[in-house]
């Protein structure tokens, strides 16, 4: 009964209500306006939008993207000498345990993985990420504050604050690596982002050890009818995959 209520409610809330409305427009166009071609066009576009709103599709396309680089099994035996953690958003004016300023959910998950790796490997963490907009937080600075709160020694924290995208993450991080004579970085970022991030570092001439984290979907999906209900979360996930694929293509072609 709980699943049935969820399934039904999703059709009277956005985006489900819009899908119902546009299917109704398609039926009206066919029956009342006698324009089957336009009705088919409207129905086709609406159905495509519906598919993008389903968890059934999101689990599969996002799962494929997240599976491109699995975490290495032998990370403890690697000769890595630094962990690079890429930023992914911060909020400057929200309350936090240590004052104000907090990481968004994805970089917070990345930071948790970076801390655990640092404790196992005893190597420094390079935090890469600047202030993207005037009303967003300085990502690396806020992450540095959290690391210190978690007990990471300041000497093991390197901060890069100039970058505002992944290409600049790679460029400015590599400049720091060269100055400090660090040659074997572990790259920590969200699983959906790792492929493009690795590509950016490779284009700068540096080979990294990819360590994806912040997984968003199961990689062994099991069908349930509720995964066919329209959800804004599924739409966001599918759009994110499309964005990553497009950005990766642009990066390969234009190296930006």
CATH domain class of the largest domain:
Alpha Beta
- Count of DSSP helices? 9
CATH level 3 topology of the largest domain? Rossmann fold
Q: How helical, in percent, are the residues?
A: 40-55%
Set down the secondary structure blueprint.
Blueprint: H1 2-9, H2 16-31, H3 36-52, H4 55-66, E1 82-86, E2 90-96, E3 99-103, H5 105-121, E4 125-128, H6 139-149, E5 157-160, H7 166-180, E6 185-190, H8 194-203, E7 209-213, H9 232-254
Parallel strand pairs: 1-4, 1-6, 4-5, 6-7
Antiparallel strand pairs: 2-3
Could you characterize the architecture of this molecule?
The protein is of the alpha/beta class. The protein folds into 2 domains: 2-66 and 230-254, no CATH class; 75-213, 3-Layer(aba) Sandwich (Rossmann fold). The chain is 50% helix and 14% strand. It is built from 9 helices and 7 strands. The chain has helices spanning 2-9, 16-31, 36-52, 55-66, 105-121, 139-149, 166-180, 194-203, 232-254; strands at residues 82-86, 90-96, 99-103, 125-128, 157-160, 185-190, 209-213. A 5-stranded parallel sheet has the order 5-4-1-6-7, with helices on both faces. A two-stranded antiparallel sheet has the order 2-3. Strand 6, helix 8 and strand 7 form a beta-alpha-beta unit. Helix 2 runs antiparallel to helix 3 (36-52), helix 4 runs parallel beside helix 9 and helix 7 packs across helix 8 (194-203). The longest helix has 23 residues, at 232-254. The chain is elongated and about 70 Å long. It starts with a helix and ends with a helix.
